[in-house]
Amino acid sequence: MTNNPFLSQDQQIVGDIYTANEMMDNLTTLCDEFGSRFGGTEGERKAADFMKAKLEAYGLSNIHLEPVEYTGWTRGQATLEIISPIRKEIPCISLPHSPPTDIEAGLIDMGDGAPADFDAHSDEIKGKMVLTNSVVGPPGVSRWIHRTEKYGRSILAGATGFIFANHYPGYGPATGGIGHEDEAGLNEAGLIPGISVAYEDGAFIQRLIKRHGKVKIRLKTTDRIEPMTSWNIIADLPGKETPEQVVIIGCHYDGHDISQGAGDPASGVAAVLETARVLVQYGAHLPCTVRFALWGVEEIGLIGSKQYVEAHKDDLENIRFYLNMDAAGMVEEKGIVLNEWPELKDIFSAWSEEMALGFEVGQSVHAFSDHFPFFMQGAPTGGMQQVRRSLSGRGYGHTAYDTLDKVTLRSLREAAAMAARLLLRLASAGDWPVTRRARDDVLSLLDGPDYREEAEFRKQLAAHYAKERSKLEIG
């Protein structure tokens, strides 16, 4: 029988979470009263104030909002019209940080958008609008091919626009940011317009291209790009022995403007709030500080967490671990994915047995959630995810159907209970085997075989953006 030194606290935490409705009540308020909480909306500010008030009511310390200044985006009107060989208007939505436009262009179908296909057809892409879909695991590709990579490869090949077709029937268009970070770390609009269409409309356009060869479209959008302010919400449960040592648990609270964002991300937000509530009661004497962070404007470039890392550079050495909870309340098979920290694998695996949960522990890293700014600065990071990652895609995520009715109280409880129990252990571990990585070690890791192709693409895209900016400055 495995010895569990936290058995009494585990029982109290699990018993409390599984006999309370607070978490679903919080999620309902976030989704039904504040809507998407997308950057620049009234619901975003109301959500920030609500979460701050909750953390105060739970008894946390050092609770405050940290402003996040950024280049925001407001949706306008988008129209997509086929002008030859037939005339037909196709329903569409702009992708966040798409610049306003009024263009006519031919179309090229890039299917699933595998990197090799972009390389093979670069000459055909130039001057055309690229049509691709939301499949994240094209045949022959073992890694996740993100929307922003397909968009970026379209730019590098000289495309004039980007059409992103959802690959799930019946879900409507799938949204997602296409902005870019400049050398100063500030986000900016994409270089070419990007829109999304439903699976059914994407399939229609594909058939048209296959039958007629040449298809010409007109795209007009009136989106606005302007300065905005968001907020990170921060709260502490101070450590009693080494308060300068910090374990952080975080999740972004902004969804996309077309949806409630109930699963992604609000289910994770609700779990973070619940973790705070129970740890105040059953973990008040932890040696290390536990910090609860709710990030603004993640969906358009991880902006809140990036600015936090920049503003708190002097504290990064003291971060023992950052646990990311993005959409954790929707993860079916909850595990812990460490961001390439092999020294921690046995520790988390032992906790899995000690906690009688049997969760899996994996190793990988990607650039598309709030762990990444911490990872890039060398902090030990990981997230509550499904270890055996599916290459099928997001499902309802980033569509209008990511709504409250998709989230179950059972899954929320599993996420919060697992997180709270892990934080007990993370904040109590005596000899912690890892420290902050040096910058060169981070870059060396990303140059490994599993990450090299994507890292090289990101370098090329950054150089291209810099070149285009310099042209504008000279002009």
What descriptive keywords fit this protein?
8-stranded mixed beta sheet, 36% helix, single chain, Aminopeptidase, alpha/beta, Glucose Oxidase, domain 1, 2 domains, globular, 475 residues, 14 helices, 18 strands
Largest beta sheet: what is the strand line-up?
Answer: 1-12-14-13-15-18-16-17
What is the CATH top level name of the largest domain? Alpha Beta
**CATH architecture call of the largest domain:** 3-Layer(aba) Sandwich
Which stretches are poorly predicted, pLDDT < 50 over at least 5 residues?
A: none
Question: Strand portion, in percent?
Answer: 15-25%
Q: Total number of β-strand segments? A: 18
Number of helices: 14
Brief characterization of the structure:
With 475 residues, this protein is α/β, with parallel strands linked by helices. It has helices spanning 7-17, 22-33, 42-58, 115-120, 122-125, 147-156, 199-212, 262-282, 303-311, 345-354, 371-376, 409-426, 439-446, 452-474, and strands at 61-74, 78-84, 88-90, 93-94, 101-109, 129-133, 161-165, 180-181, 187-188, 194-197, 216-221, 224-237, 242-252, 288-295, 319-324, 335-338, 361-363, 381-385. The chain has 14 helices and 18 strands.
